[in-house]
From TrEMBL:
Organism: Jejuia pallidilutea
Documented EC number(s): 5.4.3.8
UniProt keyword Iron, yes or no: no
Domain of life: Bacteria
Keyword entries, A-Z: Aminotransferase, Isomerase, Pyridoxal phosphate, Transferase
Protein name: Glutamate-1-semialdehyde aminotransferase
A Pfam family matched in the record: Aminotran_3
Amino acid sequence: MNYLAPEGPVYQAGTLSGNPLAMAAGLAMLSELNTDDKVFKRLAEKTEYLHKGMFKVLNDNGIAHTINRVGSMISVHFAKDEVFDFSTAAKGNNDTFKAFFHGMLSMVST
């Protein structure tokens, strides 16, 4: 914590940054995760399932895409070529991503 401003050189800000309740909740979650050594394996398996499903739907519908996944982290790009940095990500189809993004949001709100 000594590295964070104002004591240190690293500036960090966010909606719940420094909020005692958010910090306590984060600590409780990390403590809980440490009690189950299989939680990350299960999470990665669920992400792999999601990856396969997304790939099939996009492929079956002829939608150019690249899906990057490492463990439980996943990112879909509407680009036919490999995405490995900002420049390659920026070449994706933003209109398709916008439709996907807003479609996902509408699923959450219903």
